[in-house]
Design goal:
By secondary structure, the chain is an alpha/beta fold. It is built from 21 helices and 28 strands. Helices cover about 30% and strands about 20% of the residues. GO terms for molecular function: 3'-5' DNA helicase activity; ATP binding; DNA binding; zinc ion binding.
């Protein structure tokens, strides 16, 4: 009888190279490279950075080839690589080091980070594109290296850019120096507080162009597709076509992979995009940049839940690259970078600030209450009406920011003010328009004959007013003025000049030609009273983003914030000084022991699983365990706090404890998040 032996059981007739592979298995106890023999038929093409298929625990799984070595430290028999998926080297040395650092920072697995860093393969796109010739080297650093002619092209970019201004950096005392440092090949790190009306996309494009002129590449990350379109257009105008790619998960598999290949093959030196671009493979990285780092869209919702800002800052540290963190408002994390000296501030002087800011007025201070006693309770006090009328009379558009979308997202009993709830699931009832009965926001059931369980009343009143109801009310108040809405369902890109009312939810405010004559910030209580550690910071960020679209005060621009002028976020808006507010917030968090002054990890799961993980974790001696608190669906959350110096030890302890549970095949999962964006 003839016996056949599989490739996994064959012993090589001669010494074959060994491949170290990261297998795509999401188990913490398997978070390490595994050694495989490289078959002779793929020895020249199975290079570091390629995708492979391997046998692992009896199954055929995907993997990334991290390294090639002459021998293995494993004493037993080594299996062969089953298949080389593609000779395309999609993982560079720089991104591999970054992925390992991010996994360690967030107590995660390397395979999970690589799944975020390298998009799924699209074979047809890969075969249709012109590949870069394979370099027979075991060093990942050569992937995507460019020729001397292309390097010369980068330096020539300074000539066409020289006649297109400086993108507004001249409005800041240290702005021109920042551009010169980038062009000279240095690695400055900056926290930029943008002036109202600043064309931030043009400023970022000039910073990127200066980096390219110095012979290096750049990666810039924005929050959403609208911001990406602005930055993409600015770069195309400044650098010309074909010098950069826009990378976003919303592009679809083929277009996203095509853009990724252009970067990994060194065909472009600039990548911009949403958080999908934070791991983009750019050769000779010289600048990482992020705009509006406080936006929650920068937080990755998949394990290990990294934040784009932290990934880019880690990348700048490892690659010795420049870093730019910009926005109209400043986060506590950005303030900490400035206070510790890791980055320098780029801010305008007071004269430039006075010339560019609109007039900002609150409605809840004493002078306003003396003139209008209803200003403290009215949704649209007389000051806001007057500002809107004056702007419309001057043939200028008016922006109205409303925190909630929909019509009436929450209603209550007219007689006793008890919130209206669904009789089936206890979810909140809402009105989608004026002519339909209330419906549950959770289960969707319609409640045509609602009766208050407290008093028996059948009439409902608005508890929260949404953007569509606001637009309806303004349309009745200004019948001859067009009213437009901009929200999650339909985002307006721009508004032409002329009298118009634009009702928008935060983040969906369109840019107006020439700026808005008035900006009204309504329902500020909805932002300020959120049960969130970042409530004040987030409110100020959203207000400043809207107020920045107004005309300067000298041109008639007015901003009315319906809030008490004595509140700290309102004071920061009045003075246009988010750095002062961020410093105040950071000082409070240091005193109370909240991030970013400390490192804090969240452990969420069923109580038994959470207790099991923490019992097996060798936490640092100074770690403080807080909780438990309910997390919904029968789960609870525990918080573990350490000083920033103990961050690495905390992440390592939690990862090792997760590995012990996965090795025991624990049935109940536990979610570990380090410094989650929505901590409270």
């Amino acid at each position: 009888m003839t016996t056949t032996r599989s490739r996994s059981d064959r012993q090589p007739a001669q010494r074959l190279p060994v491949a170290r592979v990261c297998v795509d298995v999401p188990l913490a106890h398997l978070d390490r490279p595994f050694d495989y023999l490289v078959p002779a038929e793929v020895e020249e093409t199975a290079l570091p950075g390629t995708r492979v298929r391997v046998r692992f625990a009896g199954q055929l799984v995907d993997g990334w080839l991290l390294d090639r070595v002459d021998s293995s430290g494993h004493d037993g028999k080594l299996a062969f690589l089953e298949r080389l998926v593609s000779p395309e080297r999609v993982l560079t040395a720089e991104v591999a080091r970054l992925a390992r650092a991010v996994a360690d920072r967030y107590a995660g697995n390397l395979a999970d980070v690589l799944r975020l860093a390298v998009p799924p393969r699209h074979a047809r796109t890969e075969q249709a594109s012109t590949p870069t010739p394979a370099v027979p080297s075991r060093d990942l650093a050569v992937v995507g290296s460019r020729t001397g002619a292309e390097e010369g092209d980068d330096r020539k970019i300074a000539e066409p850019v020289a006649g297109k201004g400086d993108g507004g950096w001249g409005d800041y005392p240290t702005g021109p120096g920042f551009l010169r440092a980038l062009a000279d090949g240095r690695s400055p790190r900056a926290v930029w507080s943008a002036l109202p009306g600043a064309d931030w996309a043009a400023a970022y494009a000039h910073a990127i162009a200066a980096t390219v002129a110095g012979g290096r590449g750049a990666v810039a990350v924005v929050a959403d597709a609208r911001d990406l379109d602005r930055l993409d257009t600015a770069l195309s105008t400044l650098l010309g076509p074909g010098r950069h790619v826009a990378l976003s998960a919303a592009l679809g598999p083929a277009r996203r992979y095509r853009a990724f290949l252009a970067a990994s093959r060194g065909q472009v030196s600039v990548v911009v995009g949403t958080r999908a671009a934070m791991f983009a493979p750019v050769d000779r990285l010289g600048l990482v940049a992020i705009w509006d780092d406080g936006d929650d869209l920068h937080a990755e919702p998949r394990a290990p839940y990294p934040h784009a800002r932290e990934v880019l800052l880690t990348r700048a540290q490892l690659a010795d690259a420049a870093a730019l963190v910009g926005g109209y408002a400043r986060t506590g994390e950005a303030q900490q970078l400035a206070e510790t000296g890791w980055a320098r501030q780029i801010v305008a002087d007071r004269a430039a600030l006075r010339a560019r800011t609109p007039q900002v007025r609150p409605t809840g201070d004493d002078p306003q209450l003396a003139r209008d006693p209803a200003a403290a309770t009215a949704r649209l006090p007389s000051l806001a009406w007057d500002a809107a009328r004056a702007a419309l009379k001057a043939d200028a558009p008016v922006l109205v920011q409303v925190p909630r979308r929909g019509y009436l997202p929450a209603v209550a009993c007219v007689d006793c003010r008890t919130p209206a709830r669904c009789a089936h699931c206890a979810g909140p009832l809402a009105l989608r328009s004026a002519n339909v009965p209330p419906a549950c926001r959770w289960c969707g059931r319609v409640t045509a004959a609602y009766a208050c369980p407290n008093c028996g009343g059948r009439r409902l009143r608005a508890a929260v007013v949404g953007a569509r109801r606001t637009a309806e009310e303004l349309g009745r108040a200004f019948p001859d003025t067009p009213v437009r809405t901009s929200g999650r369902d339909e985002v307006l890109a721009a508004v032409p000049g002329g009298a118009a009312l634009v009702v928008a939810t935060p983040g969906a405010e369109p840019v107006a030609d020439g700026g808005y004559g008035a900006v009204l910030l309504l329902d500020t209580w909805a932002l300020l009273t959120r049960s969130d550690l970042r409530a004040g910071e987030e409110a100020l960020r959203r207000w400043m983003a809207a107020a920045a679209l107004a005309r300067p005060a000298a041109a008639g621009g007015r901003v009315v914030v319906v809030a008490d002028g004595g509140l700290a976020p309102v004071q920061a808006l009045l003075r246009w000084d988010s750095g002062w507010f961020a410093g105040r917030e950071l000082a409070d968090r240091r005193e109370l022991g909240f991030p970013p002054a400390v490192r804090m990890a969240s452990v969420t799961g069923v109580p038994e699983a959470v207790a099991d993980l923490l019992a097996g974790a060798r936490l640092p001696d100074a770690a403080v365990v807080l909780g438990p608190v309910p997390a919904g669906d029968g789960q609870e959350r525990m918080l573990v706090r350490v000083a920033r110096s103990g961050a690495a030890a905390l992440a390592r302890a939690l990862h090792e404890a997760a590995g012990l549970r996965s090795a025991r095949k624990a049935a109940q999962p536990v979610r570990i998040q380090v410094d989650p964006h929505d901590l409270f």
